[in-house]
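Hi Y.,

Following your request, here is the sequence exactly as I used it, all 371 residues.
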Amino acid sequence: MSSRKSDSGGDSAGKLSKLRADIDKFDQQLLETLNKRAAVAAQIGKVKADAGGEVFNAAREEEVLNAILKAHKGPLPEVTVKAIFRELISGSRALQSVQRVAFLGPDYSYSHLAAIERFGQSAEYSQVGSIQAVFDEVLRKHANFGVVPLENSTDGRIADTLDCFIRNPQVKICAEIRLRVHHHLLANCQPAEVRKVYSKAQALSQCRHWLSKNMPQATAHPVNSTADAARLVQGDPFAAAVASRQAGVRYGLKTLFASIEDHPENETRFAVIALNDSNKTGHDKTALIFQVQHTPGALVDALLLFKANKINLTWVESFPYKEAKGEYVFFVDFEGHQDEPKVKKAIKALEEMCESVSVLGSYPVSVASDE
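Below is the corresponding structure, written out as tokens. Let me know if you'd prefer a different format.
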């Protein structure tokens, strides 16, 4: 009996040793292949630099990721494969030139998480205190790119961002990031002890029903960002923050409740801004701002131009025009790239009809990722 057990144990140890040897062999092969790929990427960077090209190419990176995910058959989860290649692309990009990315801080705000989702860990990140400051960093060329929130599936437009586009039309959208946002209640006390809940106003709004039902004893306190909320409650034994799990880790807070957002499909769309937009991929969007004449039916006539050219609108938003009381500007994005003939035709007709038109850029369509 004991001899058979010993033999069985020996067989298991032998199998385990062989499997581990296979893992070690594959690791070495992977490392060799990754470095070969990186060397080719560095050569591409030199060719682009000689031709005056940009290091970050959203269209090409989307093409690479889509091809990889299409070919992927498992068993690794798709999210793992995407993360691996995101960091591989990030590191390869850094071999050409380290890209500086500005975002609304502090660290581990949702804007920061969105920036990492797009640019990976090899970029250089610069946190600033306002959305306008993100635009300023790009305009002054202190940052190659900025990441700003554009709209949320629960609360709609981000007014500060739209206002910045009105005042800085030379800034372009070169990519979009769609992040499924999960809010967590973080604190260093027990749930019954919480008397104040801090977070960004939009995050509090996205959890208002949950907070009302489960934290009726606590008052809500808006602050500049979700990460700032996590920082604030570190030393307060009667406060909690609504923020990301990563912010909780950063500031040493316990997760009292996870995923407290009222809508499980809560998603925020971010714009990657730069001084140039993106090349055509065949699966693109274009964003623009226009102002119509203050006459009956002017907006309807403008929107009918898109229908006439068989262009599908994916977002329409009105915004008060501060330079003229009672008037509005309209933000739209739609399927297609501004270099496509039917899009060119629609934009030209829009320019002839409207008081002003500003194209904010064309960029690849993205798919939503979990934070």
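The chain has a mean pLDDT of 89.

Thanks again,
Q.
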